[in-house]
């Protein structure tokens, strides 16, 4: 069974969606580890409830990104992690992790990249009065939400769309799309723009 690690900073509803499909047997993977940079995050409780080991840290306890990523890397290796899943992890991945895992780190982002990268993509789409937004799953590179796109799914914004309603629509897509894509990545290898690739 391939070993994956999930990185999260907040509620972890995407993490939960992945736990659920692993537990039901739909996704054949071993969630070996949660990495979380927010000690009080609900994601940590979800890991405990599912008996998934977690590595929880505060960036402020380290002098550099390299210092905490060195510890994360050691944890990933100790658990034999092959694929890293960012699910609401609100930090840029640095060279320490990329050097070892580039091409094996994926992220989910709540917009149609390259539109609305970075923080609060949902607020950005609302402020721009966009007609469309959506969900992007992409490989992680050194940039902010810039890596090669694996898949995107669109969401139409209603005229009276609120932050909560858009968040709900996006989560509903994410919770189905992310487990499905993880399954493909683990069994068939890389995909870019919906097509198989030998690069990843
Ligand atoms: C998700 O909607 C994810 O797309 C977003 O954070 C949310 C986490 O929700 N990620 C980003 O904005 C990354 N830039 P969750 O904690 O309930 O899974």
From TrEMBL:
Pathway membership, UniProt: Purine metabolism; IMP biosynthesis via de novo pathway; N(2)-formyl-N(1)-(5-phospho-D-ribosyl)glycinamide from N(1)-(5-phospho-D-ribosyl)glycinamide (10-formyl THF route): step 1/1
CDD domains: FMT_core_GART
Residues binding (6R)-10-formyltetrahydrofolate, per UniProt: 65, 90-93, 107
Active site: 109 (proton donor)
Molecular function via GO: phosphoribosylglycinamide formyltransferase activity
Keyword Transferase: yes
Sorted UniProt keywords: Purine biosynthesis, Transferase
Site (Raises pKa of active site His): 145
Transmembrane segments: none
Catalytic activity: N(1)-(5-phospho-beta-D-ribosyl)glycinamide + (6R)-10-formyltetrahydrofolate = N(2)-formyl-N(1)-(5-phospho-beta-D-ribosyl)glycinamide + (6S)-5,6,7,8-tetrahydrofolate + H(+)
InterPro entries membership: Formyl_transf_N, Formyl_transf_N_sf, GART, GART_AS
Binding locations of N(1)-(5-phospho-beta-D-ribosyl)glycinamide: 12-14
Pfam families named in the record: Formyl_trans_N (PF00551)
NCBIfam families named in the record: PurN
Protein name according to UniProt: Phosphoribosylglycinamide formyltransferase
